[in-house]
C-alpha cells in the first residue's frame, strides 16, 4: 500500500483517502512518504508501488529479488486497468470498476473478488449482476493471455491438464502445502465426476468418516449450473447422513437442527471450494 502526505496540511493519507482529502483541504499536491516524489492533481493514481525498506535503507548494490506473487498480482492489476479503459457496460458498474484502480491488491479469484468489492464498497449497494458484469470484462483479458484449447475432446482434456499443472506449480510458493493438496484432490474429484457422472452420482464413499466434501460435490454436479439451493441440499445430504449415522441420528427436530448447523459450518470451512450466495430470495450453494 502506498501512502501520501498532503503538501498543504501535512496529513498522512492512504491512497484511497487522497481524493476525499483533496476536496476538503483544497490541496492539489501530495508527496509519497517512501520516495518523496510529488504528485499534482490526479497523478498520484498512477503511483501503485514504491520502494521497499530493503531498497531504501540497504547498500547501493542492492538487487531486488522478484517475488512470484508480486509478478502475478501486477499482471492481474494490469488487466483490471485494461478493463477500465475498454468497459462499455452500465454506468454504476463502470464507476465501481474505476474505483478498483486505487486497489492494487484486488483478488484474482472470483469468490474472493466478489467479497472484496462488496466489503470495500458497501455504500454502493453492489448487486451480483454488477459483479458478474465487472468480472466478465476482467476475465476476458485474463483468458486472452492464455493458450486456446483444441477443438476435440482429447485436445481439450490435455489443455485443461496442462493449465491445471501450470497453475499448481505457480501457486506452490503462494499457498501452504495443505491448501495445495486439497486443491489437487478437488480437481481430481471434479474431473472424475464429469467423466463418470452417470455411475458416480449414487456412489457413497467407503470411509469411517462422513465425507462432506464429496457428498456436496456430487449434489452440485448433478445440477446443470453446478449449483443447488441450500434448502434442497440440506434435505439430500441429511438423508445420506442419517443412513451413515443410523445408530446416532433419527428424525427428531433436535437432530435435524444440529445437522443444519454442522452443514453450514462445513461449508464455511470449504469456502475455497463452495460459494454461498443469495439469489431470488434463496440461499444458493455452488462450486466456486
Automatic annotation (TrEMBL):
<keyword id="KW-0539">Nucleus</keyword>
<keyword id="KW-0862">Zinc</keyword>
<dbReference type="GO" id="GO:0000122">
    <property type="term" value="P:negative regulation of transcription by RNA polymerase II"/>
</dbReference>
<dbReference type="InterPro" id="IPR014898">
    <property type="entry name" value="Znf_C2H2_LYAR"/>
</dbReference>
<keyword id="KW-0479">Metal-binding</keyword>
<dbReference type="InterPro" id="IPR039999">
    <property type="entry name" value="LYAR"/>
</dbReference>
<feature type="domain" description="Zinc finger C2H2 LYAR-type">
    <location>
        <begin position="30"/>
        <end position="57"/>
    </location>
</feature>
<dbReference type="GO" id="GO:0003677">
    <property type="term" value="F:DNA binding"/>
</dbReference>
<dbReference type="GO" id="GO:0005730">
    <property type="term" value="C:nucleolus"/>
</dbReference>
<dbReference type="InterPro" id="IPR036236">
    <property type="entry name" value="Znf_C2H2_sf"/>
</dbReference>
<keyword id="KW-0863">Zinc-finger</keyword>
<feature type="compositionally biased region" description="Polar residues">
    <location>
        <begin position="179"/>
        <end position="202"/>
    </location>
</feature>
<feature type="compositionally biased region" description="Low complexity">
    <location>
        <begin position="149"/>
        <end position="163"/>
    </location>
</feature>
<dbReference type="GO" id="GO:0006364">
    <property type="term" value="P:rRNA processing"/>
</dbReference>
<dbReference type="Pfam" id="PF08790">
    <property type="entry name" value="zf-LYAR"/>
</dbReference>
<feature type="region of interest" description="Disordered">
    <location>
        <begin position="145"/>
        <end position="164"/>
    </location>
</feature>
<dbReference type="GO" id="GO:0008270">
    <property type="term" value="F:zinc ion binding"/>
</dbReference>
<keyword id="KW-0677">Repeat</keyword>
<feature type="region of interest" description="Disordered">
    <location>
        <begin position="169"/>
        <end position="207"/>
    </location>
</feature>
<protein>
    <recommendedName>
        <fullName>Zinc finger C2H2 LYAR-type domain-containing protein</fullName>
    </recommendedName>
</protein>
Amino acid at each position: 500500500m502506498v501512502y501520501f502526505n498532503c503538501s498543504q496540511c501535512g496529513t498522512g493519507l492512504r491512497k484511497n483517502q487522497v481524493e476525499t482529502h483533496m476536496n476538503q483541504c483544497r490541496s492539489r499536491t501530495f508527496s509519497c512518504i517512501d520516495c518523496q516524489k510529488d504528485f499534482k492533481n490526479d497523478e498520484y493514481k498512477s503511483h501503485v508501488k514504491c520502494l521497499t525498506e530493503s531498497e531504501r535503507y540497504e547498500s547501493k548494490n542492492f538487487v531486488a529479488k522478484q517475488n512470484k506473487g508480486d509478478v502475478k498480482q501486477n499482471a492481474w492489476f494490469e488487466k483490471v486497468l485494461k478493463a477500465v479503459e475498454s468497459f462499455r457496460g452500465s454506468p454504476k458498474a463502470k464507476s465501481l470498476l474505476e474505483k478498483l484502480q486505487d486497489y492494487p491488491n484486488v483478488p484474482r479469484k472470483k469468490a474472493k473478488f466478489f467479497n472484496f468489492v462488496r466489503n470495500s464498497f458497501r455504500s454502493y449497494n453492489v448487486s451480483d449482476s454488477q459483479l458478474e458484469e465487472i468480472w466478465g470484462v476482467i476475465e476476458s483479458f485474463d483468458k486472452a493471455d492464455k493458450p486456446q484449447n483444441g477443438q476435440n475432446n482429447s485436445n481439450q482434456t490435455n489443455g485443461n491438464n496442462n493449465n491445471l499443472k501450470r497453475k499448481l506449480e505457480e501457486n506452490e510458493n503462494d499457498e501452504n502445502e495443505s491448501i495445495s493438496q486439497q486443491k489437487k484432490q478437488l480437481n481430481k474429484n471434479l474431473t472424475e465426476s464429469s467423466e463418470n457422472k452417470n455411475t458416480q452420482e449414487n456412489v457413497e464413499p467407503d470411509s469411517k468418516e462422513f465425507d462432506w466434501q464429496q457428498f456436496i460435490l456430487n449434489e452440485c454436479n448433478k445440477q446443470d449450473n453446478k449449483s443447488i439451493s441450500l434448502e434442497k441440499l440440506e434435505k439430500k445430504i441429511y438423508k445420506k447422513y442419517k443412513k451413515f449415522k443410523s445408530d446416532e441420528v433419527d428424525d427428531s427436530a433436535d437432530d435435524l437442527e444440529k445437522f443444519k448447523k454442522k452443514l453450514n459450518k462445513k461449508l464455511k470451512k470449504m469456502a475455497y471450494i463452495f460459494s454461498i450466495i443469495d439469489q431470488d430470495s434463496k440461499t444458493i450453494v455452488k462450486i466456486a
